Amino acid sequence: MHTSILRRSLAAAAATGGAAALLLAAAGGAAAHVGVTPDKTSANSYALLTFAVPHGCDESGTTRVAITLPAELNDAQPTVNPNWTVEKVTEQLPEPKKLADGTSITKRTSQIVYTAKAPLEHQLRDTLILSAKLPDAAGTTLYFPTLQTCETGQTDWSEIPADGQDPHSLKAPAPSVTVTEAASTDGHGAAPAASHSTEQASAVTGGGADDGGAEARSWAGLAAGVGGLVLGGTALVRSTARARKTTSRSAAEPAAK
């Protein structure tokens, strides 16, 4: 009987460990690509875009991350990261582009390039944050093709899904943000006006705390789930031990009489 109880306990513990391993593997797969997490997606708003670099190229450390801005954006303000140097790359427009305020531009920022001061080790992660004004185009998906260069090799995160294609089916999807309807606070459907300088100052001073909110929440949920499985397995083993003690006492009582 004791052997049967022990076998059931070991099976339960193995199942608990297996479920935890599956959860960890799933989370690792979900966070395996370079992605972007916006703090807001409202049309015509200033957003902090947090790009997560979760690993290197195979076993090689990351040395450079070049983020290409979509044509819908004219500029982006990079947040300083002490582990990287950063530069803006500009391009000449084929013809002047007229802005909403009536002015025109002949150049735009086409890329933000971060270069590591020391290679980011393969098993470590980091985040790079940009501040950008989203276009007044709700429903539009903005793609940010990102070239990750490592000490050996590189990964070009630039695949864009075709119409109706699941982005998760792509091997190296480009980070993307989908613009949503503008927020309304005045009750008449109009979004409040925002000051460019005020928003950019806020981005520079407050951006460092954002560490990929969605990913952090995902890992927190995973930790809670694994903790619950472990506690459940522990409780089962303890209850089995109590059952064994009770059985032993019951078997000993007739002999004592």
UniProtKB/TrEMBL annotation:
<keyword id="KW-0732">Signal</keyword>
<feature type="region of interest" description="Disordered">
    <location>
        <begin position="238"/>
        <end position="257"/>
    </location>
</feature>
<protein>
    <recommendedName>
        <fullName>YncI copper-binding domain-containing protein</fullName>
    </recommendedName>
</protein>
<dbReference type="InterPro" id="IPR012533">
    <property type="entry name" value="YcnI-copper_dom"/>
</dbReference>
<feature type="compositionally biased region" description="Low complexity">
    <location>
        <begin position="248"/>
        <end position="257"/>
    </location>
</feature>
<feature type="region of interest" description="Disordered">
    <location>
        <begin position="156"/>
        <end position="215"/>
    </location>
</feature>
<dbReference type="InterPro" id="IPR038507">
    <property type="entry name" value="YcnI-like_sf"/>
</dbReference>
<dbReference type="Pfam" id="PF07987">
    <property type="entry name" value="DUF1775"/>
</dbReference>
<feature type="domain" description="YncI copper-binding">
    <location>
        <begin position="33"/>
        <end position="179"/>
    </location>
</feature>
<feature type="signal peptide">
    <location>
        <begin position="1"/>
        <end position="32"/>
    </location>
</feature>
<dbReference type="InterPro" id="IPR006311">
    <property type="entry name" value="TAT_signal"/>
</dbReference>
